[in-house]
């Protein structure tokens, strides 16, 4: 409460506007340097999750490499083939996929 009372009592040099301007500028700078890039990154991740298809080679957030062999209708989970011999398949959520592996689709 004391800070706001001080702002209302401010005299000289530009008054309340002169004191609020630096805070507004800091907020604008914070928005353009932190919030906006984070939104762009999240949008790219969401787009990658929505565009996953069978045959994509991916890496999970836990560090497991595999190939997508099945997608569920609910669009929340997928089957991932981790090993060829013996065949090991795991069920994971789409949000667990951290990214696509280099090299694109499997060549087999």
Folded structure, characterized:
This protein is α+β, with helices and mostly antiparallel strands and 108 residues long. It folds into 2 domains: 2-48; 53-102, SH3 type barrels, CATH 2.30.30. It has helices spanning 2-9, 15-50, and strands at residues 56-60, 65-71, 77-83, 88-93, 97-105. It has a 5-stranded antiparallel β-sheet with strand order 4-3-2-1-5, covered by helices on one side. The longest helix has 36 residues, at 15-50. The protein starts with a helix and ends with a strand.
Main features:
2 helices; rod-shaped; alpha+beta; 108 residues; single chain; 5 strands; 5-stranded antiparallel β-sheet; 41% helix; SH3 type barrels
Question: Which helices and strands appear, and what pairs or packs with what?
Answer:
Elements: H1 2-9, H2 15-50, E1 56-60, E2 65-71, E3 77-83, E4 88-93, E5 97-105
Antiparallel strand pairs: 1-2, 1-5, 2-3, 3-4
Cα separation of the termini: 68 Å
As laid out across the biggest beta sheet, the strand order is 4-3-2-1-5
Number of strands: 5
Strand % is 25-35%
User: Helix amount, in percent?
Assistant: 40-55%
Average pLDDT value? Answer: 84
Give the uncertain stretches in residue-range form.
Answer: none
Q: Can you summarize the main beta sheet?
A: 5 strands, antiparallel
**CATH architectural group of the largest domain:** Roll
Structural class assignment:
alpha+beta
Which descriptor suits the 3D outline? rod-shaped
Rg: 25 Å
Helix segment count? 2
Quick one: CATH class of the largest domain? Mainly Beta
What CATH calls the topology of the largest domain is: SH3 type barrels
């Amino acid at each position: 409460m004391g800070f706001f009372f001080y702002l209302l009592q401010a005299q000289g040099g530009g008054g309340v506007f002169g004191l609020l301007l630096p805070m507004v500028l800091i907020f604008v700078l914070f928005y353009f340097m932190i919030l906006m890039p984070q939104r762009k990154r999240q949008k790219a991740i969401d787009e990658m999750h929505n565009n996953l298809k069978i045959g994509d080679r991916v890496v999970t957030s836990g560090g497991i490499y595999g190939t997508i062999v099945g997608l569920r209708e609910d669009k929340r989970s997928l089957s991932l083939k981790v090993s060829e011999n013996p065949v090991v398949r795991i069920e994971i959520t789409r949000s667990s996929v951290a990214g696509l592996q280099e090299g694109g689709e499997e060549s087999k």
